[in-house]
Write a structure and sequence with these properties.
The chain is an alpha/beta fold. The protein has ten helices and twelve strands. Strand 11 and strand 12 form a beta hairpin. It starts with a strand and ends in a 13-residue tail after the last strand. The protein binds iron/sulfur cluster (SF4).
Amino acid sequence: MNTILEVKDLSVEYRTDLETVHAVNGISFSLHRGQTLGLVGETGAGKTTTALSILRLLPKPTGVVTAGEILLEGVNLLDLSDAQMKALLGEKMSMIFQDPMSALNPIMKVGEQIAETLILHGAPHQTKKQVEQRVEETLELVGIPAFRKNEYPHQFSGGMKQRVVIAIALACQPHLLIADEPTTALDVTIQAQVLAMMSELRNKLDMSMIMITHDLGIVAQVCDDVAVMYAGEIVEYATTEQIFSPGAHHPYTTGLFGSIPDLKGGTKRLTPIEGLMPDPTELPSGCKFHPRCPHKMAQCETVPPPTVAFENHLISCHLYTGQAEGGLK
Ligand code: SF4
Protein backbone atom coordinates (compact mmCIF):
# COMPACT_ATOMS: atom_id res chain seq x y z
CA MET A 1 0.00 0.00 0.00
CA ASN A 2 1.17 3.52 -0.85
CA THR A 3 2.51 5.35 2.22
CA ILE A 4 1.84 9.07 2.10
CA LEU A 5 3.06 10.16 5.55
CA GLU A 6 5.66 8.74 7.89
CA VAL A 7 6.37 10.29 11.27
CA LYS A 8 9.52 8.86 12.87
CA ASP A 9 10.56 9.37 16.51
CA LEU A 10 9.08 12.87 16.64
CA SER A 11 9.68 14.94 19.78
CA VAL A 12 8.40 18.47 20.30
CA GLU A 13 8.89 20.93 23.14
CA TYR A 14 7.53 24.37 24.01
CA ARG A 15 10.34 26.38 25.59
CA THR A 16 10.02 29.56 27.61
CA ASP A 17 12.47 31.24 29.97
CA LEU A 18 10.63 29.65 32.88
CA GLU A 19 9.92 26.09 31.78
CA THR A 20 10.01 23.44 29.08
CA VAL A 21 6.83 21.62 28.11
CA HIS A 22 7.52 18.12 26.78
CA ALA A 23 4.51 18.00 24.48
CA VAL A 24 5.41 15.11 22.13
CA ASN A 25 7.92 12.46 23.16
CA GLY A 26 9.25 10.18 20.42
CA ILE A 27 6.17 9.15 18.46
CA SER A 28 6.14 7.17 15.21
CA PHE A 29 3.26 6.34 12.88
CA SER A 30 2.47 6.11 9.19
CA LEU A 31 -0.50 6.77 6.98
CA HIS A 32 -1.42 5.12 3.69
CA ARG A 33 -3.08 6.82 0.74
CA GLY A 34 -6.85 6.86 1.05
CA GLN A 35 -6.81 5.90 4.73
CA THR A 36 -7.76 7.68 7.93
CA LEU A 37 -5.70 7.54 11.11
CA GLY A 38 -7.31 8.57 14.39
CA LEU A 39 -5.16 10.31 17.01
CA VAL A 40 -7.04 9.70 20.25
CA GLY A 41 -6.51 10.82 23.83
CA GLU A 42 -7.43 13.34 26.49
CA THR A 43 -6.69 17.06 26.29
CA GLY A 44 -2.94 17.56 26.72
CA ALA A 45 -2.00 14.21 25.15
CA GLY A 46 -0.06 15.94 22.34
CA LYS A 47 -2.51 15.37 19.49
CA THR A 48 -2.78 18.95 18.25
CA THR A 49 0.95 19.57 18.71
CA THR A 50 1.59 16.54 16.47
CA ALA A 51 -0.69 18.04 13.79
CA LEU A 52 0.88 21.49 14.04
CA SER A 53 4.35 19.92 13.72
CA ILE A 54 3.35 18.14 10.51
CA LEU A 55 2.07 21.42 9.07
CA ARG A 56 5.08 23.31 10.47
CA LEU A 57 2.67 25.65 12.24
CA LEU A 58 4.11 25.40 15.75
CA PRO A 59 4.15 28.80 17.47
CA LYS A 60 7.50 30.51 17.05
CA PRO A 61 9.89 30.72 18.79
CA THR A 62 8.50 28.59 21.65
CA GLY A 63 7.50 25.45 19.69
CA VAL A 64 10.56 23.40 18.71
CA VAL A 65 10.87 20.01 17.03
CA THR A 66 13.77 18.51 18.99
CA ALA A 67 14.06 15.17 17.20
CA GLY A 68 12.61 13.04 14.46
CA GLU A 69 11.49 13.15 10.85
CA ILE A 70 8.20 13.94 9.13
CA LEU A 71 8.19 12.44 5.64
CA LEU A 72 5.41 13.51 3.30
CA GLU A 73 5.58 11.42 0.12
CA GLY A 74 9.24 10.75 0.98
CA VAL A 75 10.25 14.39 1.61
CA ASN A 76 11.31 15.36 5.14
CA LEU A 77 9.18 18.44 5.85
CA LEU A 78 11.57 19.51 8.60
CA ASP A 79 14.28 20.10 5.96
CA LEU A 80 12.17 22.48 3.86
CA SER A 81 12.49 26.27 3.86
CA ASP A 82 9.50 28.37 4.89
CA ALA A 83 8.86 29.24 1.24
CA GLN A 84 8.94 25.57 0.17
CA MET A 85 6.62 24.70 3.02
CA LYS A 86 4.19 27.47 2.10
CA ALA A 87 4.02 26.05 -1.40
CA LEU A 88 3.05 22.65 0.00
CA LEU A 89 0.33 23.93 2.31
CA GLY A 90 -3.06 23.91 0.72
CA GLU A 91 -1.89 21.97 -2.30
CA LYS A 92 -0.55 18.86 -0.54
CA MET A 93 -1.80 19.30 3.04
CA SER A 94 -4.42 21.30 4.84
CA MET A 95 -6.10 21.39 8.20
CA ILE A 96 -9.60 21.84 9.56
CA PHE A 97 -9.66 23.48 12.97
CA GLN A 98 -12.11 22.85 15.81
CA ASP A 99 -14.25 25.91 15.75
CA PRO A 100 -15.83 26.94 12.44
CA MET A 101 -17.04 30.19 14.02
CA SER A 102 -13.49 31.44 14.52
CA ALA A 103 -11.97 29.82 11.41
CA LEU A 104 -13.97 32.03 9.03
CA ASN A 105 -13.55 35.73 8.36
CA PRO A 106 -16.92 37.30 9.31
CA ILE A 107 -16.59 40.22 6.88
CA MET A 108 -15.73 38.23 3.74
CA LYS A 109 -18.20 36.37 1.56
CA VAL A 110 -17.63 32.61 1.78
CA GLY A 111 -16.90 32.38 -1.95
CA GLU A 112 -14.16 35.00 -1.59
CA GLN A 113 -12.60 32.99 1.25
CA ILE A 114 -12.43 29.86 -0.90
CA ALA A 115 -11.10 31.87 -3.85
CA GLU A 116 -8.38 33.36 -1.63
CA THR A 117 -7.08 29.85 -0.84
CA LEU A 118 -7.20 28.88 -4.50
CA ILE A 119 -5.27 31.96 -5.59
CA LEU A 120 -2.68 31.63 -2.82
CA HIS A 121 -2.01 27.92 -3.14
CA GLY A 122 -3.70 26.08 -5.94
CA ALA A 123 -4.46 28.20 -8.96
CA PRO A 124 -2.35 31.35 -9.07
CA HIS A 125 -2.41 31.47 -12.87
CA GLN A 126 -6.10 30.84 -13.41
CA THR A 127 -8.43 33.50 -14.73
CA LYS A 128 -11.08 35.08 -12.52
CA LYS A 129 -13.74 33.05 -14.32
CA GLN A 130 -11.86 29.78 -13.78
CA VAL A 131 -11.39 30.53 -10.06
CA GLU A 132 -15.10 31.39 -9.80
CA GLN A 133 -15.96 28.02 -11.35
CA ARG A 134 -13.66 26.16 -8.92
CA VAL A 135 -15.29 28.00 -5.99
CA GLU A 136 -18.74 26.86 -7.15
CA GLU A 137 -17.55 23.27 -7.69
CA THR A 138 -15.94 23.19 -4.24
CA LEU A 139 -19.09 24.48 -2.55
CA GLU A 140 -21.17 21.86 -4.34
CA LEU A 141 -18.66 19.18 -3.30
CA VAL A 142 -19.53 19.85 0.35
CA GLY A 143 -23.27 20.05 -0.32
CA ILE A 144 -23.71 23.84 -0.43
CA PRO A 145 -25.55 25.32 -3.44
CA ALA A 146 -23.20 27.43 -5.58
CA PHE A 147 -25.34 30.59 -5.31
CA ARG A 148 -24.53 30.81 -1.59
CA LYS A 149 -20.97 31.86 -2.45
CA ASN A 150 -22.13 35.47 -2.14
CA GLU A 151 -23.30 35.05 1.46
CA TYR A 152 -21.41 35.88 4.66
CA PRO A 153 -20.57 33.34 7.42
CA HIS A 154 -23.30 34.71 9.74
CA GLN A 155 -25.92 33.62 7.17
CA PHE A 156 -24.90 29.96 7.67
CA SER A 157 -25.83 27.54 10.49
CA GLY A 158 -23.05 25.91 12.57
CA GLY A 159 -23.03 22.74 10.44
CA MET A 160 -23.03 24.73 7.19
CA LYS A 161 -20.18 26.93 8.48
CA GLN A 162 -18.13 23.79 9.13
CA ARG A 163 -18.91 22.66 5.56
CA VAL A 164 -17.52 25.98 4.34
CA VAL A 165 -14.37 25.44 6.43
CA ILE A 166 -14.03 21.97 4.91
CA ALA A 167 -14.55 23.48 1.43
CA ILE A 168 -11.68 25.92 2.06
CA ALA A 169 -9.44 23.05 3.23
CA LEU A 170 -10.36 20.97 0.17
CA ALA A 171 -10.23 23.78 -2.38
CA CYS A 172 -6.82 22.72 -3.69
CA GLN A 173 -7.60 18.99 -3.35
CA PRO A 174 -4.79 18.21 -0.85
CA HIS A 175 -3.31 14.73 -0.53
CA LEU A 176 -3.45 14.92 3.27
CA LEU A 177 -6.20 16.50 5.36
CA ILE A 178 -5.74 16.93 9.11
CA ALA A 179 -8.98 17.45 11.01
CA ASP A 180 -8.64 18.64 14.62
CA GLU A 181 -11.86 17.81 16.48
CA PRO A 182 -13.83 19.02 13.42
CA THR A 183 -17.27 18.32 14.88
CA THR A 184 -16.81 19.17 18.56
CA ALA A 185 -18.61 22.51 18.23
CA LEU A 186 -21.59 20.99 16.37
CA ASP A 187 -24.88 19.39 17.45
CA VAL A 188 -24.78 15.59 17.48
CA THR A 189 -27.08 15.16 14.48
CA ILE A 190 -25.05 17.64 12.44
CA GLN A 191 -21.84 15.91 13.60
CA ALA A 192 -22.99 12.67 11.99
CA GLN A 193 -23.76 14.42 8.69
CA VAL A 194 -20.39 16.22 8.60
CA LEU A 195 -18.46 13.02 9.44
CA ALA A 196 -20.31 11.04 6.77
CA MET A 197 -19.55 13.78 4.26
CA MET A 198 -15.86 13.81 5.18
CA SER A 199 -15.57 10.04 4.70
CA GLU A 200 -17.31 10.30 1.35
CA LEU A 201 -15.00 13.11 0.21
CA ARG A 202 -11.94 11.20 1.35
CA ASN A 203 -12.94 8.32 -0.90
CA LYS A 204 -13.96 10.54 -3.79
CA LEU A 205 -10.73 12.59 -3.76
CA ASP A 206 -8.48 9.65 -2.75
CA MET A 207 -7.16 11.71 0.16
CA SER A 208 -5.59 10.56 3.41
CA MET A 209 -6.85 11.95 6.70
CA ILE A 210 -5.65 12.34 10.25
CA MET A 211 -8.63 12.68 12.57
CA ILE A 212 -7.81 14.18 15.96
CA THR A 213 -10.46 13.38 18.50
CA HIS A 214 -11.19 12.39 22.09
CA ASP A 215 -14.39 10.68 20.94
CA LEU A 216 -14.16 6.92 20.32
CA GLY A 217 -17.53 7.05 18.53
CA ILE A 218 -15.95 9.23 15.84
CA VAL A 219 -13.01 6.82 15.59
CA ALA A 220 -15.42 3.92 15.01
CA GLN A 221 -17.22 5.89 12.31
CA VAL A 222 -14.33 7.19 10.20
CA CYS A 223 -10.91 5.74 11.09
CA ASP A 224 -9.00 2.76 9.65
CA ASP A 225 -6.18 2.86 12.22
CA VAL A 226 -5.90 4.40 15.67
CA ALA A 227 -2.97 5.76 17.67
CA VAL A 228 -3.90 6.22 21.33
CA MET A 229 -1.82 9.05 22.81
CA TYR A 230 -0.96 9.72 26.44
CA ALA A 231 1.42 12.39 27.78
CA GLY A 232 2.98 12.93 24.36
CA GLU A 233 3.51 9.23 23.58
CA ILE A 234 1.65 6.65 21.52
CA VAL A 235 0.73 3.94 24.01
CA GLU A 236 -1.27 1.73 21.65
CA TYR A 237 -1.36 1.62 17.84
CA ALA A 238 -3.77 -0.68 16.07
CA THR A 239 -6.48 -0.98 13.46
CA THR A 240 -9.86 0.39 14.53
CA GLU A 241 -11.22 -3.16 14.54
CA GLN A 242 -8.48 -4.28 16.96
CA ILE A 243 -9.01 -1.31 19.28
CA PHE A 244 -12.73 -2.10 19.51
CA SER A 245 -12.18 -5.86 19.97
CA PRO A 246 -11.73 -7.56 23.34
CA GLY A 247 -8.21 -8.83 24.10
CA ALA A 248 -4.90 -7.17 24.89
CA HIS A 249 -5.05 -3.41 25.38
CA HIS A 250 -3.02 -0.75 27.10
CA PRO A 251 -4.59 0.07 30.49
CA TYR A 252 -5.16 3.65 29.30
CA THR A 253 -7.12 2.42 26.26
CA THR A 254 -9.14 0.17 28.57
CA GLY A 255 -9.75 3.22 30.77
CA LEU A 256 -10.98 5.27 27.80
CA PHE A 257 -13.52 2.57 26.94
CA GLY A 258 -14.55 2.32 30.61
CA SER A 259 -15.44 6.01 30.51
CA ILE A 260 -18.05 5.58 27.74
CA PRO A 261 -21.71 5.20 28.80
CA ASP A 262 -23.43 1.93 27.77
CA LEU A 263 -26.22 3.13 25.49
CA LYS A 264 -27.62 -0.37 24.86
CA GLY A 265 -29.47 -0.34 28.18
CA GLY A 266 -26.90 -2.48 29.99
CA THR A 267 -26.13 -2.15 33.67
CA LYS A 268 -22.43 -1.34 33.20
CA ARG A 269 -21.25 1.43 35.53
CA LEU A 270 -18.89 4.10 34.26
CA THR A 271 -15.34 3.57 35.49
CA PRO A 272 -13.53 6.84 34.92
CA ILE A 273 -9.73 6.93 34.84
CA GLU A 274 -8.63 8.24 38.23
CA GLY A 275 -6.39 11.30 38.38
CA LEU A 276 -5.28 13.74 35.70
CA MET A 277 -2.91 13.85 32.75
CA PRO A 278 0.57 14.62 34.21
CA ASP A 279 2.10 18.09 34.09
CA PRO A 280 4.08 18.09 30.81
CA THR A 281 6.82 20.19 32.42
CA GLU A 282 7.45 17.43 34.97
CA LEU A 283 6.55 14.10 33.42
CA PRO A 284 6.69 11.03 35.68
CA SER A 285 9.65 8.66 35.36
CA GLY A 286 9.18 5.16 33.96
CA CYS A 287 5.74 4.68 32.43
CA LYS A 288 4.04 8.07 32.25
CA PHE A 289 0.69 6.47 33.01
CA HIS A 290 1.88 4.81 36.23
CA PRO A 291 0.37 7.34 38.69
CA ARG A 292 -3.10 6.49 37.29
CA CYS A 293 -2.68 2.84 36.35
CA PRO A 294 -4.62 0.16 38.25
CA HIS A 295 -2.12 -2.49 37.02
CA LYS A 296 1.05 -0.68 38.11
CA MET A 297 4.04 -2.88 39.01
CA ALA A 298 7.31 -1.91 40.72
CA GLN A 299 9.26 -1.53 37.48
CA CYS A 300 6.60 0.80 36.02
CA GLU A 301 7.78 3.66 38.22
CA THR A 302 11.36 3.60 36.95
CA VAL A 303 11.61 1.78 33.61
CA PRO A 304 9.89 3.20 30.50
CA PRO A 305 8.01 0.33 28.83
CA PRO A 306 9.25 -0.67 25.37
CA THR A 307 6.79 -0.76 22.48
CA VAL A 308 6.09 -4.39 21.59
CA ALA A 309 3.95 -6.15 19.02
CA PHE A 310 1.27 -8.09 20.84
CA GLU A 311 -1.77 -9.76 19.25
CA ASN A 312 -0.86 -8.07 15.95
CA HIS A 313 -0.68 -4.52 17.22
CA LEU A 314 1.69 -2.25 19.14
CA ILE A 315 1.45 -1.62 22.88
CA SER A 316 3.82 0.19 25.25
CA CYS A 317 3.22 -1.48 28.59
CA HIS A 318 5.22 -3.79 30.88
CA LEU A 319 2.22 -6.13 31.04
CA TYR A 320 3.08 -7.25 27.52
CA THR A 321 6.85 -7.38 27.61
CA GLY A 322 8.77 -10.60 28.24
CA GLN A 323 6.77 -13.28 30.00
CA ALA A 324 3.67 -11.14 30.57
CA GLU A 325 1.13 -12.61 28.13
CA GLY A 326 -2.61 -12.89 28.03
CA GLY A 327 -3.87 -9.30 28.07
CA LEU A 328 -6.31 -7.46 30.25
CA LYS A 329 -9.85 -8.58 30.78
FE1 SF4 B 1 0.35 0.36 33.88
FE2 SF4 B 1 2.86 -0.41 34.14
FE3 SF4 B 1 1.61 -0.82 31.86
FE4 SF4 B 1 2.31 1.63 32.59
S1 SF4 B 1 3.69 -0.06 32.10
S2 SF4 B 1 0.38 1.03 31.75
S3 SF4 B 1 1.99 1.53 34.79
S4 SF4 B 1 1.11 -1.74 33.83
